[in-house]
Design a protein that fits this description.
The structure holds 2 protein chains of 2 kinds.
Chain A lengths: L8 H14 L14 H10 L4 H15 L8 H14 L1 H15 L3 H6 L23 H6 L8
Chain B lengths: L4 E6 L3 H10 L6 E4 L29 H4 L8 E4 L31 H5 L9 H15 L23 H14 L4 E2 L37 H7 L3 E3 L3 E7 L5 E7 L5 E11 L2 H11 L25 E7 L12 E5 L15 E6 L4 H11 L8 H8 L3 E8 L8 E9 L5 E6 L4 H20 L3 E6 L36 E3 L14 H17 L7
Parallel strand pairs in B: 1-2, 1-8, 2-5, 3-14, 8-16
Antiparallel strand pairs in B: 4-10, 6-7, 7-8, 9-12, 9-15, 10-11, 11-12, 13-14
Classes of the chains: A mainly alpha, B alpha/beta.
């Protein structure tokens, strides 16, 4: 069993809830929420070296909420999330980063952004050469390299 | 007991590779000990869909975050700028942006010109042939003729201007400011066995295409073919000396942790501005109680980082995002001293093309410009693929209180005391950074950018590790002489960035390697009386 599955059921529930608060689903952009099962599975499977800080963040979140985050009233849940985001330190930042790095490599999300579903290598990308006449004013202005004695 | 070698080089990075390659023609027995191993490009981040996530873990720029077995910890708690490096064959040339300016002639004479710091004991002209040789071997691309930079002759044409370069160029033209396509070590054509750049974008943590030059694919294959022995996963603990004060060799640990003594007639240190003073201080003995080659007391002192002042923003037009090398242009508009600005010396600027989606999301969330909740998607689409950046590389003047010492507690995996950094940003540097941010704001706003964000300094921006074993003619005010030999130990040389007297306002790797080639050349010319 991967160490990432060392999250308890309650921690996984809170992770889903906070992830959906960070990135909710959008019909307009045709993207899922970050609590989507496939994205959550990616997070849990790849926590790796981030496990300790994510667990610390979830523990902090649990203390702030006092009960499962999903069971709080909306206003209270928003207040807890705000406090977590503002004062959660490195642990909270790590949790948010884990959510975002898994969300923004999901096929459906990348497709919505107009990005290709592939690694950069080996195909690479094409970069337009551009209009080098833009450099003409710089050449015309010239300049002098500072002399050294 | 191992047989002695003629020359033992410690470190296989930018300078170690160059000095090994140059000395190979002497046919001496040359051995290089490197604490890292050979890299495998098939494992580089851009080969996988998780390429951006790796930047936060095993491919982090900070050795403290990365924590590979090849890395050593660095206590940089007492510094606003954290040390970044890479430990492998190729050293930090594996993990750098490939931006390739060189020091200006005026950078070698700052005391004479501006009355601050010290002049170097050599001048730009002494390095000119070695800059040229290094550019040929590393394989540079660029456009010759920049009126505000030293004349270079890159063997390959410059990178494309791209979408980002065009937006920035237009804005700079409106302001009447200097800009020019950067010299880089990114191959823009097939070159000496390297394939041309295909815009993988994620250049800094290694190039899977091999288009970005690193010494593991440039100098080292040639040096090894010429007979240099490169022994990997060997971490040097100390340099040993005899009763005459001469270096006798090194004690190192191999990949299995077994301790060895390797005798040598000449020892060359190429461990960068943190690793080199660490090794010298760890080589203290009864003859050298304050550390080896430290009669001046300056080993580890005068650490210079180049504080980076970065400002970036978002334009309506699409930018190159992650689909191009990260840097494209430079400006030397504010490179030289103009006391009306309120500070002495100056800074170079490197412009940044953009960022990938994960990096954009993570950083923008941290900056507070990417909200949680319903508006997240709209804002993200406004930011992603629209970023432009301005990064000023501020000349850091030498100050003795900025230093590398040995941490009394922290040790590496072999039990060797780790380096500790004490560093503060000077008032002059802070004024320079503030000036740069104001100029960056002007040009970004001229380009139409909004949502401007600042990193000043870039916290994990301690790429350039300079000055901690400075060069000079006075043994009381310097550690090595004008050709890289330590004043105190006549068969011990230093060739890395620690010998810089001042830092200039540009990325230093080109100059570090030119210096290494220059020192190797000096050694070859003096072989008959090298220890006199």
């Amino acid at each position: 069993m991967s160490e990432s599955y060392q999250l308890t059921r309650a921690q996984r529930d809170d992770l889903r809830t906070i992830a959906a608060m960070i990135v909710p689903a959008s019909d307009e952009y045709k993207v899922p929420s970050a609590d989507d099962p496939a994205i959550q599975a990616d997070m849990l499977a790849t926590l790796g070296r981030d496990t300790g800080l994510v667990v610390a963040a979830l523990d902090h979140l649990a203390r702030l909420a006092g009960q499962p985050l999903a069971e709080l009233a909306a206003a209270k849940r928003d207040a807890v999330a705000l406090e977590f985001r503002n004062n959660g330190g490195a642990a909270a930042a790590t949790l948010v980063r884990v959510v975002l790095q898994c969300y923004y490599r999901d096929d459906r999300v990348l497709r919505s952004l107009g990005l290709e579903l592939r690694a950069p290598f080996p195909a690479g990308y094409v970069l337009p050469d551009g209009d080098w006449s833009l450099l003409d004013p710089v050449k015309a202005k010239g300049g002098t390299l500072r002399r050294a004695p | 007991m191992k047989d002695p070698v003629d020359v033992l080089i410690i470190g296989a990075g930018a300078s170690g590779a160059a000095v090994a390659w140059s000395l190979a023609e002497t046919k001496m027995h040359i051995l290089c000990l490197e604490q890292g191993g050979w890299m495998n490009p098939a494992e580089y981040p851009s080969t996988g869909r998780d390429w951006e996530a790796k930047f936060y873990g095993e491919w982090a720029t900070s050795p403290n975050i990365r924590g590979r077995p090849e890395d050593y910890p660095i206590n940089d708690d007492n510094s606003p700028i954290k040390v970044v490096n890479y430990n492998a064959v190729g050293g930090s040339t594996v993990m750098y942006t490939a931006h390739w300016p060189r020091l200006h002639p005026s950078d070698f004479k700052v005391k004479t010109l501006d009355g601050v710091a010290d002049d170097w004991p050599i001048d730009y002209d002494a390095l000119t042939p070695f800059f040229e040789e290094n550019d040929r071997i590393m394989g540079t691309s660029g456009l010759s003729g920049d009126p505000l930079s030293p004349l270079t002759h890159p063997p390959m044409p410059q990178q494309p201007l791209g979408l980002s370069g065009a937006i920035l160029g237009k804005a700079m033209n409106k302001l009447g400011w200097h800009w020019w396509p950067s010299d880089t070590t990114v191959a823009t054509t097939d070159y000496e066995g390297r394939a041309r750049c295909i815009n993988l974008g994620h250049c800094t943590p290694a190039c899977a295409q091999g288009a970005k030059s690193s010494t593991d694919i440039t100098y080292w294959p040639q040096a090894v073919r010429a007979g240099v022995e490169l022994r990997t996963h060997c971490r040097v603990r100390e340099i040993t000396t005899d009763e005459n004060g001469m270096a006798t060799g090194v004690v190192y640990y191999d990949k299995d942790g077994v301790e060895h003594f390797q005798p040598a007639h000449v020892v060359i240190i190429a461990c960068n501005g943190v690793g080199t003073p660490r090794l010298l201080l760890n080589s203290a003995s009864s003859r050298f109680p304050n550390g080896l080659a430290n009669s001046s007391g300056l080993v580890g002192k005068n650490l210079m980082f180049h504080p980076y002042a970065q400002i970036y923003g978002y334009v309506k037009e699409p930018t190159d995002s992650n689909r191009a090398p990260p840097t494209c242009l430079w400006s030397k508009e504010w490179y030289d001293t103009d006391l009306s600005r309120g500070f002495v010396r100056g800074y170079g600027v490197q412009f940044v093309r953009g960022a990938g989606p994960v990096f954009e999301a993570v950083v923008s969330e941290q900056k507070g410009i990417l909200p949680w909740g319903a508006d997240h998607h709209r804002v993200f689409r406004k930011l992603n693929g629209h970023r432009l950046g301005f990064s000023a590389i501020c000349e850091d003047l030498p100050e003795e209180h900025n230093c590398v010492t040995l941490d009394p507690v922290l040790k590496d995996s072999h039990g060797i005391p780790a380096p500790k950094i004490n560093y503060t940003i000077s008032e002059n540097s802070q004024k320079m950074m503030d000036h740069a941010l104001a100029r960056g704001r002007e040009v970004l706003e001229m380009a139409g950018a909004t949502d401007l964000c600042i990193n000043s300094p870039i916290p994990w921006g301690g790429w350039h590790l300079l000055g901690t074993a400075r060069m000079g003619t006075d043994p009381e005010r310097s550690v090595v002489n004008e050709w890289g030999r330590t004043h105190d130990v006549k068969n011990l040389f230093i060739v890395d960035g620690s010998i810089f007297v001042t830092s200039g306002g540009v990325n230093p790797t080109s100059t570090i390697q030119a210096l290494a080639l220059y020192i190797a050349d000096q050694m070859k010319q003096r072989l008959a009386n090298l220890f006199d």
